[in-house]
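hiii, so i know i said id send this last week but things got crazy w the move. better late than never?? heres the sequnce for the chain we talked about at the cafe, plus the structure i predicted for it. fair warning i was half asleep when i ran it
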Amino acid sequence: MKIRNQVKKDMPYPSQLNGIDCCIEIPKEAVTQLCEFLEEDTGVSREECFRWYSNEFAQTASTTWESIGKPAVNFGSAWDVFAQMAPLILQKYSSSRRYMKYCVITRKGQPVVTAAK
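okay and structure toks below
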């Protein structure tokens, strides 16, 4: 699958607006030291700060991915892998009120995942 250009997308650049480049280069070592300091100070790793899901969900997703044969995930296959995994994950969480009451996911206009409470 190829990412297409968005020729109609009007994205201004500083030079087009008579702007100036105010980028400040920060040495990689300084960023590394700051990350280490913040982790020591807060006790929370960078990975934990940027995690979008719980450890419980990560384990469920990993187990589900393994159960469908550990297919390769890349730009071209991600949707197909998701479509295989989603019903299995929704089935596990369908009894929990913490999650959505219903979900409809479509591909090319056809529902591939539906779950209702």
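btw The longest strand covers residues 110-116. thought thatd interest u
miss u guys!!
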